[in-house]
Amino acid sequence: MRHNMRSITLLIIFSLAALCGYAQEIPEIRVQLATENRLAPVQLLPFTTSDNSVSAAYLKQLDGILRFDVSYSGYMVPVSAEMRAAYTVSGTVKGKKLTLTALQGAGNRQIKEILLSGSLSIDRRQVHKATDALLKHWFNAQGIAASKLLFAIQSQQNNTWVSEIWESDWDGGNLTQVTQEKSYCVSPAFIPSKPGHESRRFVYVSYKLGQPKIYLASLDEGKGRRVVDLRGNQLLPAVSPQRNKIAFICDAAGRTDLFIQSINPESGEMGKPVQLFSYPRSTQASPTFNPSGSQIAFVSDKDGSPRIYVIPTAVTKQRADATLITKKNSESSCPAWSPDGTKLAYSAKTKGVRQIWIYDFNAGEERQLTDGPGNKENPCWASDSLHLVFNSTDASSSEIFLVNLNQPDAVKITSGGGKKHYPTWSQL
Amino acid sequence: MESIMKRSLQLITLASLVFAGCQKKTGGAWDDDNTTGRYMYKNVRSVWGTDNEGQLAESMEDFSGPEDDSFIPLQDDDLKGGGAEIVAAQPKFAPGEAGSGLPGIDHFRNPSGELANVFRTVYFNTDDYVLRGQEYQQIVESVAQYLKGHPDTYIYVTGNCDERAAEAYNLALGSRRANYVRSLLVKQGVDPERIHTVSYGKEKPAVLGHNPEAWSKNRRAEFKIYRKE
């Protein structure tokens, strides 16, 4: 029964792909998890208008945005009108006001009223928020459709490679350039927001001084100011969920070490950097904090090939040792600790191709999440600990993909020129 | 009591390192594990005044590692016996940074003409940061000789990787490679303040291609040169 349901789901998702304006289905990237299928079938009735205050073409665009959000929510999946569904969503427009209604059985409830601005950029954000309201109403779940992504896009300008930080909605829409440095910017990391607020600030690495250094910028003003005043190369920053610590890789001492530093994003006040972990003849990389900020997972090749270790963040006189946690794969990189603390996503070379793997802290087990061609790296969790973004790179391109643990397919959310990589997800 | 124990441990370590340094290396690898200690960082800014020749640790005081107050360093006990490895702290300021006395990296030129025969690109094995082979030893020695004879010359060592490892890890590995080359130059007596490093990971391949030949040409460290007028 579960397999039948899964097949139906797949058919529906593939048929939906053509409707999605921004995201593009690529069936070759598949999730291997034998997850319990918890997707609720939902009928999405086409948006209608009683007074033609909005064009049919515009309504179809909004309809497509909602379909994407529902299709990859991890809780629901749209089904055709012929199939029975416990849940139905309708949308009607009158006087430029889009009213979304959720119907379940005999009951119905108005979920959201959107006064359409006519700007797709603004209205699509409202549709994302409506999807999150649907999830809250039916499943009491915190949706992440209204969250934002940041990633780096590399392009060639005047025979020089430049890279800037861009933001987008979770479906790849509203793609906007944030930094304007005409330099090389990579590895952005959102600074988590205060509860109830949206992440607006981020740290990233820029080569504008020649050496890579860490800067802080906001989405409103993409102008970075340096936050780590340390000699040498600083790379791969990560910010603790408590917003009070930043971890990064730095060669100030002549080795490629793990550093940690206290930070106050509001005042800009920084503590003294601390060399947290170093090891002779080894390379450290890619720190990620656990939810309490008490531990960091990072990559080290201290025992041979790159693997993932965990170390406490407490700075004591006698420093703690690093503990190997991922043992199944011999070449692992770019760990990302889930916000609920139960999982670690990472990339591991699997039969010659880098795939996304999930380490389950409770079970102490590792399992392969993705399959298919394309080296998949830099996974980053959404705040629901269900969705991930990552970049997949082949010989000709590098694009951003979205996946969740309940659905078998990753979906490509970027297209066009430029190498897109290092995605990071705002935490709601 | 603790200081006595620490001092004893350091003496034992130093003695063992001196002994190790006298051992004849039999392998083909030319790495830095036969040195007698780490480089000390004297906190002398040669950019502003007297060039400071690097020097090997000769006393227990010298063996205390890089002197640096810009961060809280790990103690020797935490460095897992890292005394066998040369570690030269990075210059305090990057070129172009306020206070550096040097222009930015755009003013550092790729070696050309006669300098191209001295500052030759060196290449690494897969996932390795150590230079293997006599040829590279000679290149590094030539670079060191040139720099010692031209105290007005400053360099960047750029660390690069091929496309196969993960890109985030490669950013760190590129840093490791550049620092390794830098440490070899310091070992040869070049002032650490004159050698800057930058890691490009796999972001700037020398050769576009997805085959072993392209990969071997991209696992490299290059030199960029600036001559102070």
Protein architecture, described:
The complex is a heterodimer of chains A (428) and B (229). With 428 residues, chain A is mainly beta. Chain A folds into 2 domains: 38-139, Rossmann fold, CATH 3.40.50; 148-425, TolB, C-terminal domain (Neuraminidase). Helices cover 12% and strands 45% of the residues of chain A. Chain A has 3 helices and 32 strands. Chain A has a 6-stranded antiparallel beta sheet with strand order 27-1-31-30-29-28, covered by helices on one side. In chain A, helix 2 crosses helix 3 (120-139). In chain B, 30% of the residues lie in helices and 11% in strands. Chain B has 2 domains: 2-84, no CATH class; 105-227, OmpA-like domain (60s Ribosomal Protein L30, Chain: A, 2-Layer Sandwich). In chain B, helix 3 packs across helix 4 (167-187). By secondary structure, chain B is α+β, with helices and mostly antiparallel strands. Chain B is built from 5 helices and 4 strands. In chain B, strands 1-4-2-3 form a 4-stranded mixed beta sheet. Chain B is globular and about 40 Å long. At the A-B interface, strand 13, strand 18, strand 19 and strand 28 of A face helix 4 and strand 3 of B.
